[in-house]
Amino acid sequence: MKEEIAKIKENSIREMGNCEDLKSLNDVRVKYLGKKGELTLVLRGMGKLNPDERPVIGSLVNEVRDELNNLLEQKEKELKAKELREKLDTENIDITEPSKKNILGSLHPITQIIEEVEDIFLGMGYEIADGPEVEKATYNFDKLNTPPDHPARDIQDTFYITDDIVLRSQTSPVQARVMETKKPPIKIICPGAVYRSDSVDSTHSPVFHQIEGLVVDKHISMTDLKGTLEMFAKKCLGENTKIRFRPHHFPFTEPSAEADVSCFVCGGKGCRVCKGEGWIELLGCGMVHPNVFKNCGINPDEYTGFAFGFGVERIAMAKFGIEDMRLLFENDVRFLKQF
Amino acid sequence: MKASVEWLKEYSDIDVDCEKLGDILTMTGSKVEEVIEKGNDIKNVVVGKILEIKKHPNADKLVVTKVDVGTEKVQIVTGAKNIKENDIVPIAKDGAELPGGKKIIKSPLRGVDSCGMMCSVGELGLDIKDYPNQIEDGIMILPEVYEKDLGKDIVDVLNLREDIIDFEITPNRPDCLSIEGLGRETAASLGKKFKNPRKNLDELEVEDKKEIEGLKVDITAPDLCYRYIARVVKNVKIGPSPEWMIRRLKACGVRSINNIVDITNYVMLELGQPMHAFDINSIEGKHITVRRAKNGEKIITLDGVERELDEDNLVIADEKKAVAIAGVMGGQNSEIEEGTQTVVFESAIFYGGSVRKTAKKVGLRTEASSRYEKGLSSENAIRAVNRAVELVVELGAGEEVPGKVDVYPTKQKINKIKLDVNRINDLLGTNISEKEMIDILEKLDIKVENGFAISPYFRMDLEFLADIAEEIARFYGYDKLDTTLVKAEATLGIRTKEQRIEKKIENILVDNGLSEIYTYGFVGEKDLEKSKIRKELVDDAIEITNPLSDEYKLMRPTTIPSMMQILALNNNKKNQNVKLFDISRNYRNINGEVERGEVPLEEKILTIGMYGDDVDFYTLKGLIENVLEASSVNHYDITKEKENSSYHPGRCANLKVGTDVIATIGEVHPEVLMNYDINKRCYLAELNITKVVKYSKQNKKYQEVPKFPAIERDIAIIVDEEVEVGSIEQAIIKKSKRVLKGKRGLEEIRLFDIYRDEKLGKGKKSIAYSLIFRDKTKSLSDEEVNPVMEEIAKELEERFGANLRK
User: Fold this and answer.
1) Continuous segment of H or E residues that includes residue A165
2) C-alpha–C-alpha distance, residues B658 and B635, integer Å
3) Contact state of B516 with A337 under an 8 Å Cβ cutoff
4) Model confidence over B37-93: pLDDT tens digits?
5) What is the distance between the alpha carbons of residues B458 and B446, in angstroms, rounded to a whole number?
6) What pTM was computed for the model?
7) E strands along B480-548, which residues?
8) What pLDDT was estimated at residue B244?
9) Residues B43/B161, Cβ–Cβ less than 8 Å
10) What is the spatial distance between Cα A82 and Cα A88, in angstroms, rounded to a whole number?
11) What is the pLDDT of residue A272?
């Protein structure tokens, strides 16, 4: 009996050693340890043994079974590892083959600039305001201290629908509308389309976009205006940008200024974009005129404020290196996809 | 405004070069457009004398000359015809530079060395009209007196050097449209004393008279004419002006005409007050009336053009006729002529708004009108007319008639503004002392008395404290202002719901491969026709009274034509697979708002336009569904739309919330495509973002993730082509609900296959759905689902004649 068990053990270990895959290993397991396996049969045949031998043989069989199970398990691990290695070897891919990406569209350069500016001012606590493009002349002009005989109201510059209704020639009417409806503190920017009676050429368009800013509160000063615009210029045009104020005149601000920024293309050395001057005229601004406050129901003795406005196309053109404004409104998809 | 630096020096010492002066004045508010340094572009050109002229050995048309250029004698070859020996001529020597960048270099001409060039008037950059004795296509022959200047720089000899600064003057500063005004700014900017060479005019007293030399003046439109002063000079000798005056006029861009006319122009440039001169004999009845023109009244202006006027225009008239359009231009009928002996100088102040309108109406914007329209000082007018008389006497052009006729119905207002030092510092963010403020103001002739700043007569723009603050800031230095950040109550910087939705929509569309376009709000009537826009929308279009062109005549009531134009452009450029979107506005005058002076309706519209291999109606439908999902519009119906004339009647749908149409999507009508020369199917969607925002409901609530398994069943049916899958789905959902109640139900219905095949029969289609049923409280059994499937099959058969496929 003992010899028989030793034989079984020897055979099974040998066969196990010959196994190349999990299936043949399983066959070995069934052959020796299955329900009708050779070792199992030995155990079943123990009834025929005399009672003295039974415990001895019994424990021997169990001992061998445990040993075989361990070996099987070990062998199985080895084979699994080998199979995995083989699988990985066959699944090598060429990662330089084309991807299955989504083809993305694009936001128009004007939108990109507007969003960038919006984000800067949102971060400084400004809201984004909006108003009609077909606007009352009172909002576009009168309330902004531009009375009926003012040259800015010339039909050469402004599109008229009726004597009282115009296409807004600036985003400033939104200022007046906000001041009429909201109490200070007011901090807004208003991006939007404006209309001027200019024929289309490489630097003019009858429709273009402005971003207007307005702050009204107690103790708002011109140095606040300068600081705010400097912050904006640095964030939008680069941290090294410098800002320069020059006195100017607008009907709706006093004192008024034009703000130049150091050329963000050449850094102020002088180039084609800044026409060799090192500075680029960026925007008009100033302290809200007391008449504008009065016209919009805000007490100019109690509050001060500043306002500024600039053209989006000019910034977009300078930033993206677009030389002809017409490209922005032609909408050739080969142009649009570049942004 | 062009100013000669030489003239400015009469008002202020200038110890910086022109470029620097320009920079300084720009920073104090007189923006410099251009600095012109005349004469600087001529280098190494000297006075020379032709000693001999010989034939050229190799060329018939050339001669070889010997020229004395002072320091040496040089040989010059020239083709000039008008020279002879002993002529004094300008010589560009070897290495000379001429205007326009031309360089002269010693070189052989047909084998003979030429060491320079003789110059014509034009080659020196001069105007032949200023040198009437010279010829245009020949060498400039200088008078013999210049022989003493042999070898000297021609620029100095002919006095060609002139520094000119061209200023862009803002409309609030008409006083700076004068040398005096710019001189004051120059002195203040450079920290120099303002020399005030015309101080005598401030002190001069001229007696008021009812009439002089029989001349009377009346103003019948005092609302348009605030002051009218006439002075007279007699025994006038019309002739040329002295050279210094011609030169200054020229530097400022004014051509000399004769001494009297030049004096009016000179005074305007010097003091900023436009002047006019009449021949007294051309004034009928010697009676000037400043009146409104009669409707249709005509006058021939000095430029020889007949102009028609109306009641809104002001004229200077005698007893019979208009002799000038007030503030714009004089009439030919009262022009100063060769034989004029007695001259009337007019110095008047007209209402700027009226001059502007008149100038525009007659299409004549003059030096005078552009000054008047900004509002001029009545107190300066008297100085100007006295200055004109002074100049007549100084030039010996005539004799002064004492006294003036001065009609001055509306006295100029002088503003007193309290100099509130704290408020000025508050407004500017500065800490400027009172003394410093007063110093600045006094440099500008703004006196401070008893704590009040007094606006000088020439500064009518100073009305408010803010105006005074600006003066202080200008000379304190805008560049010295600090940069601070607003220290105020905290405000919330946040996008509104609409703005957030708009951004989400943009992102989804870009992720789906669409590119954003920007279009004008204008369309033409033709565009509306080409896009077959429905009449009710066409009626809402808003007309611009002064459009740039017919294509830009209307504010669009719909964005379709704008998108169609861009699709057509891209198609025309052979761009494949074009997917575009535009978030912009339409403008609709629905209830006559515009006529009532109200603003019309403006709606924010998302417009999508696409064509290409990978798009069809369902691509578009999917996009819009995505957009609505992202916008949290969860409940809407899709209904077929056959009436919208811009779209294919069989391939168009409206998306509605209740009865409110929030979007229209579909294939573009073939006729519209034809109108735009597009040879492929295009797809359009219009989504009203304003309405989307209204119906957007963001009330998401967590639903328990299912614990129990679902049962999935497929069902395939054959139906007639006309049966819409939407109604089949509705029927399935409704039936499931009726049979399975409580926590049990149809969780998902998914159409996974539609196919058409002759084997199915003509006009038939096969549709296959996958249905998922679930009970949230336990595992669902087949016994529960089977009856539902049977009921569904029965329902579909009864309602749609569907055959169940097994």
Assistant:
1) strand A165-167
2) 9
3) no
4) 888 889 999 999 999 999 999 888 999 999 999 889 999 999 988 999 999 999 999
5) 10
6) 0.86
7) 515-516, 522-523, 542-543
8) 93
9) no
10) 10
11) 81
Residues B383-404: pLDDT tens digits? 999 999 999 999 999 999 999 9
Are B74 and B58 spatial neighbours (Cβ–Cβ below 8 Å)?
no
Residue B183 tokens, joined: 């001189």
Distance between A60 CA and the closest CA of chain B, angstroms: 50
Q: Kindly state the greatest CA–CA separation across chain A.
A: 131
State ipTM.
Answer: 0.87
pLDDT bucket at A155, cuts 50 / 70 / 90 = low
Cβ atoms of B275 and B350 closer than 8 Å:
no
Which of B372, B427, B480, B559 has the highest number of chain A CBs within 10 A, making it the mutation to test binding with A? Answer: B427
**Mean pLDDT, rounded, for A88-111:** 93
Q: How far is CA B200 from CA B205, B271, B387, B393, in A?
A: 10, 13, 9, 15
User: Which of the four pLDDT bands, split at 50, 70 and 90, describes residue A39?
Assistant: confident
- In chain A, which residues have their Cβ closer than 8 Å to the Cβ of B569? 330-332
Q: What percent of chain B has pLDDT over 90?
A: 85
Across the interface, whether the CB atoms of B518 and A329 are under 8 A apart is answered yes
Contact partners, residue B35, CB within 8 Å, separation at least 6:
B18, B19, B22, B163, B164, B165, B166
Residue B527 has pLDDT above 90, yes or no: yes
d(Cα B534, Cα B673) in Å, to the nearest integer? 16
CA distance A328 to A208: 10
Contacts of B171 in chain A (CB under 8 A): 151, 249
Sequence-distant (≥ 6) Cβ neighbours of residue A240 within 8 angstroms: A234, A262, A267
How far apart CA B330 and CA B345 sit, in angstroms, is 12
B687 to chain A, minimum CA–CA distance in Å? 18
Helix (H, G, I), strand (E, B) or coil at A151: helix
Radius of gyration, CA atoms only, chain B: 42
Count CA within 13 A, CB hemisphere, residue B292: 10
Residue from B236, B230, B234, B235 nearest B216 by CA = B230
- Per the CB < 8 A criterion, the answer to whether A174 and A136 are in contact is no
For B99, the token pair is 């205007």
Q: What are B634-643's pLDDT values in tens digits?
A: 999 999 999 9
Question: How distant is the alpha carbon of residue A268 from its chain centre?
Answer: 30
Whether domain A109-336 has CATH 3.30.930.10: yes
CA distance B538 to B556: 9
CA distance A280 to chain B (A): 14
Taking 90 as the threshold, does the pLDDT of residue B96 lie above it?
yes
Map residue A299 onto helix, strand or coil.
coil
Other C-beta atoms within 10 Å of B576: how many? Answer: 11
Do residues B329 and B302 touch, judged by C-beta distance below 8 A? yes
Which chain A positions have a beta carbon within 8 Å of B510's beta carbon? 104-107
C-alpha B442: how far from chain center: 36
CB contact under 8 A, A134 and B481: no
Q: State the residue for tokens 């909006």.
A: A130
Q: What is the mean pLDDT of residues B145-174?
A: 91
User: Mean pLDDT across the stretch B656-663?
Assistant: 96
For the stretch A283-317, pLDDT in tens is 999 999 999 999 999 999 999 999 999 999 999 99
Nearest chain B alpha carbon to A164: B597
Domains and CATH numbers, chain B: 2-37+167-197 (3.30.56.10), 43-157 (2.40.50.140), 203-407 (3.50.40.10), 416-480 (3.30.56.10), 497-695 (3.30.930.10), 711-805 (3.30.70.380)
Place of tokens 């630097």: A203
CB contact under 8 A, B470 and A126: no
Please report, as a single letter, which amino acid is at residue A30. Answer: V
Question: Is-contact A215 A222, C-beta < 8 A?
Answer: no
Contact A154 B492 (CB under 8 A): no
